[in-house]
Amino acid sequence: MMGSTLGRVSHCLILALALSIFALIYPASSAAADGEAKGPASDVIRFRAFDVDRAPRDLEAGRMDLYLYSLKTAAAERLQGDDRYTLHQAPASTVSLVLNPAPAPRGELNPFSIKEVRQAVQYLVDREYIAREIYRGMAEPMITHVSPEDFDFLSVYDIHRGSGIAYAPEYARAIIRDAMTAAGATLTNGIWHYNGRPVRIKLIGRVEDERRNIADLLRVELEGAGFQVATSYLPFAAAVLSVYSTDPAIFEWHIYTEGWGRGAPQRYDYSNINQMYAPWLGNMPGWREVGFWQYEHEELDRIGKELFRGEFSGVEERNEMYRQMTRIGLDESVRIWVVTAENSFPARNDLDGVTVDLVSGPKSPWTLREINLPSQDPVTIGHLWVWTERTTWNPVGGFGDVYSTDIWRAVHDSPMWNHPFTGVPMPVRADFEIETAGPGGKLDVPADAVMWNAAADRWAPVGGGVQATSKVVYDYSGYFNSRWHHGQPIEMADVVYQVAQRFELAYDADKARIEVALGVTARPYLETFRGFRFLDDNKVEVYVDFWHFDEPYIASYAAPASLSVPWELLYAMDDLVFTQRRAAYSDTAASRFNVAWLSLVMQRDAQLVDRTLNQFRLRRSVPERVFQVGGRSLVSWDSAQRRYQAALDWYDKHGHMVISNGPFYLAAFDPPAQFAEVRAFRDETYPYKAGDWLFGQAPVLGIENVRAETVVGGEDARVTADVIGPGGLGLRYLLIDPAVSEIVAEGAAVAAESSSEADGINRTSFVVEIPGDVSATLFPGLYELYLVAHSDQLAKVVDRHVDLEVE
């Protein structure tokens, strides 16, 4: 599902804090000086929907200034040479196939329930053709879940390059023939039959982009392998409903062309690999929804949870765990990777303030707060859609598509986010201090630290004898000295309510039975927390059993609250979902109970929230137990009443209930018109001004001047290459015998000479040495040498292929 938030657990979206060693490349992010305008660079930004096929003409006609949905390749090529426009390019999306592995009912056969058949599909996908012809060179083939440009490609590059997976249809058909025959199927007139009936596969292909062509290509291959294929070409909402909201065992689908919008670069991934392979996090068939058939894999879950929770002793063990999961994921082949697409986002060339994230390009949170047109205001942003039937604005179980998320990032300030170039977590509005005894030690948790007791509905002291691996003290002054969009101050109560809500969803028996997937997937994360202390001076002290060799990841993991909306909205939504039972946080719960999937931009849902808040006001209702912490109450009735009234006034004025704290507020949202408008939040308490978060373009990383000599068997050989980029540079190599897809040599190249160039860019010469005892084992012919360059200041790698001739 293009642009899916990767999973159902809100903490997976919490991105975080920066290493001080990178401080020199961060922009100034201090509060705005007195007298300077607070908030973003533009006063108004409007979002409108434009069909991707017409988008270039709409751009040329002046109907929009930036398009946040990738152009199709041919259109991008046409605009490439037009000096009126800039094409901002980034590997912002990936394409995969998800297969339905559920067992068929008695008397029927689902071929994808057979692992060997799923593995055979790997060899039916012509990734090179798709990248070269369908995407016209604007994509890179993928074998694993890791893009060849991601930093973690270093961890798995030998698995990727040495997998032997390539387009081999005859080989695939042979595997399928053996597996289907063993399952009792027969091939009659070129069609597989089981119990006298043809074996039929339901293929769902998306229609908005190149995935339609990929579906056509796959259909031909599956038919060539002997299957009848019923292809449905569906847009976003209908496709997502058929696949992710249904029980795999009812077989609304067998195979689906997924697309994933990518968020921020990640130097050390721990969530994406779990989302794409491990069932426990709710993104594998079955989706952890109650009553659905579930794909299960105990080993993937075990290793995945250990990786997620930092249960490793250092980078080497972490990388090996990552590699183990990758190997198992390839072996299982429930999700098959196709390409990373190089997306092209066109903009007027006089549009200032664009930051091009290494992964998401201009779709990062930084661009919208900094863009402006000197000659005009407002700025118009184009997208494929502004609203679809699956667009859901709620911060608990919504925001599952890029169309809502891309606007939400302008409306909400996260406590932390990953740096757009280094991929290292950094503070946005929450600073932190870390103390850790990890990986092997423990810290004492103060006896007066508390945990939310969902059974008793209260905060309970942890008492003596409790220990934790790490402690993080978060300073929320960046929030607490400012206001929500409806004018009320952001307070500790907003943090406390969200922490309690998380534990309620996971551990309150009645709530967990309603929002099953949210609760089940959150528990392995929440069970690592050992205590909280809500301090008087804007600080929250968190004790957690988590460690990471890159310490800001500890702060990223342990962040107690995202402060997305004020507590009174969460309280009203909880009442709607769990008391009134008139809405649901997640799509699966909404479908199961036949209620609305709660969306704060939809008038029907916003009106329900409005009525609930008014009832709270009339009944003088406050969640008092939530706010009773450490012998004091964080909320008085007078402050709660002011909150309720401010939210009611907001709804009367705007007709929706999206209230947050970012540089813009949502001024208008019109689903039928495919229109949204955000306006600058110029409140004097807002901490940032235009220019505080402008990053621009990432430093370059490249491999140049590769010089390879002919390899003579039994003699030492050398390959030299220059790596250019910021910071400390490295080069790894992999020598493969393509005849058998076997790795014959690998390692780190030796740095020979370094020099500094302009703008902090360095150049280092490296030597790949192939000793004579290795060359003596090589047969005459061509071998493939892969070079992978990396920098300690960029969350990306550069891959280069060289043919080596052996005599």
Structural class: alpha+beta
CATH-level-4 superfamily name of the domain at 702-806: Immunoglobulins
Low-confidence stretches: 1-34
Q: Report mean pLDDT, rounded to a whole number.
A: 93
The CATH architecture of the domain at 702-806 would be Sandwich
Assess the beta-strand content as a share of residues. 25-35%
Molecular structure report:
There is one protein chain. The chain is α+β, with helices and mostly antiparallel strands and 807 residues long. The protein has a domain at 702-806: Immunoglobulin-like (Sandwich). The protein is built from 24 helices and 36 strands. The strands form eleven sheets. It has a six-stranded mixed β-sheet. A five-stranded mixed β-sheet has the order 2-12-1-28-27, with helices on one face. A four-stranded antiparallel β-sheet has the order 15-20-22-21, with helices on one face. Strand 31 and strand 32 (742-748) form a beta hairpin. Helix 15 packs across helix 17 (516-526) and helix 19 crosses helix 21 (603-619). The radius of gyration is 27 Å and the shape is globular. It starts with 43 loop residues before the first strand and ends with a strand. 54% of the residues are buried.
Features:
807 residues; alpha+beta; Immunoglobulin-like; five-stranded mixed β-sheet; disordered N terminus
